[in-house]
């Protein structure tokens, strides 16, 4: 019994030590805004007490391109695309609730349909008429759902390693443990491990890149929103649903994507009428980060052609 008590005591000490090492308190929004907002940053109040952050670049008289980031990411994921797109387009990058610098009320429950309506509310607030919509990963899932719900808004649709088709179940920690533990710790080690598995060249995922992800996730309330959101609608793509999309569609996919397999991109291209597929052998889940110049050039050529024919 004495040995057992000693073992238990050692385990308790190790758990407490790990907790003290990993714990990550919230970072105030004021601190994050001071560090990450820039000259193009703006905020708009939307229904549901959402204080949404966006960044605008380029001439306001030019055709609009709206960019949607993936789960846990932020407006910064599009930094490689923005200077190129902004030469001849108005580029709008937003932070969805639970991400970046966007504030949502305590107890907010994110969902894929909810994010679709956040995008629509933002488009209405900005008085957007026709615009091209591009999204990566979760943002890609929100984009194709938006195209079905609000087709009249879009001049073009771009899906970048988009979520949509059901993925194989993963072995993971019990959800109750995840919800408590992951909302209280500094997720930096988990973010680093996950991102480096999902890209072609892990060196692209620098310490600064990971730190930015982790700091945004420590904005007040963000970790709770990320872990409690219902994004099940992102796994409901079907040939029948996608056949309803008639906006010109470009599907981009990294062939080395470790999260969403290339087969998903091929299925999108096959199911959406007239969709064009471009794949990148030297990119994984984040082509906008891994091959920014090449992927941006493909997007520009596509949306410009769509704008003259749609």
Poorly predicted regions are: 9-22, 170-184
Number of strands: 8
Order of helices and strands: HHEEEHEHEHEHHHHHEHEHH
Write down the overall geometry: globular
Structural class determined from secondary elements: alpha/beta
Helix content: 40-55%
Radius of gyration: 20 Å
- Biggest sheet: strands side by side, in what order? 1-2-4-3-5-6-7-8
The CATH architecture would be 3-Layer(aba) Sandwich
How many helix segments? 13
CATH superfamily: Alpha/Beta hydrolase fold, catalytic domain
Strand content: 15-25%
Task: Give the mean pLDDT.
Answer: 88
The CATH class:
Alpha Beta
Give the termini distance in whole angstroms.
Answer: 77 Å
Number of domains: 1
CATH fold label = Rossmann fold
Largest sheet: 8 strands, mixed
Describe the structure.
The protein has 13 helices and eight strands. It is an alpha/beta fold. The protein has an eight-stranded mixed sheet with strand order 1-2-4-3-5-6-7-8, sandwiched between helices. α4 crosses α5 and α7 crosses α8. Helices cover 42% and strands 15% of the residues. The chain is globular, with a radius of gyration of 20 Å. It has a single domain, classed as Alpha/Beta hydrolase fold, catalytic domain (Rossmann fold, 3-Layer(aba) Sandwich). The longest helix is centred in the N-terminal third of the chain and has 21 residues.
């Amino acid at each position: 019994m004495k040995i057992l008590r000693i073992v238990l005591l050692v385990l308790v000490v190790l758990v407490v030590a790990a907790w003290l090492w990993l714990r990550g308190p919230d970072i105030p929004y004021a601190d994050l805004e001071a560090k990450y907002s820039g000259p193009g940053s703006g905020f708009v109040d939307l229904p549901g007490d959402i204080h949404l952050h966006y960044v605008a670049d380029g001439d306001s008289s030019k055709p609009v391109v709206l960019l949607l980031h993936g789960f846990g990411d932020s407006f910064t994921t599009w930094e490689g695309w923005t200077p190129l797109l902004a030469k001849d387009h108005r580029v709008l990058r937003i932070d969805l609730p639970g991400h970046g610098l966007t504030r949502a009320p305590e107890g907010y429950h994110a969902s894929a349909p909810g994010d679709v309506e956040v995008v629509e509310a933002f488009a209405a607030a900005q008085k957007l008429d026709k615009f091209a919509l591009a999204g990566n990963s979760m943002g890609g899932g929100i984009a194709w759902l938006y195209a079905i719900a609000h087709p009249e808004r879009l001049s073009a649709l771009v899906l970048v390693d988009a979520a949509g088709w059901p993925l194989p179940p993963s072995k993971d920690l019990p959800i109750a443990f995840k919800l408590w533990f992951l909302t209280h710790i500094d997720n930096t080690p988990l973010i680093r491990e996950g991102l480096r598995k999902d890209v072609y060249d892990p060196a692209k995922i620098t310490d600064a890149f990971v730190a930015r992800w982790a700091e945004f996730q420590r904005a007040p309330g963000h970790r709770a929103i990320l872990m409690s959101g219902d994004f099940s609608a992102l796994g409901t793509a079907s040939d029948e649903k996608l056949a309803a999309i008639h906006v010109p569609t470009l599907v981009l996919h990294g062939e080395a994507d470790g999260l969403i397999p290339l087969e998903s991109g091929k299925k999108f291209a096959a199911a959406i009428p007239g969709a064009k597929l471009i794949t990148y052998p030297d990119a994984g889940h984040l082509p906008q980060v891994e091959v920014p110049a090449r992927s941006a050039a493909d997007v520009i050529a596509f949306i410009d052609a769509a704008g003259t024919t749609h």
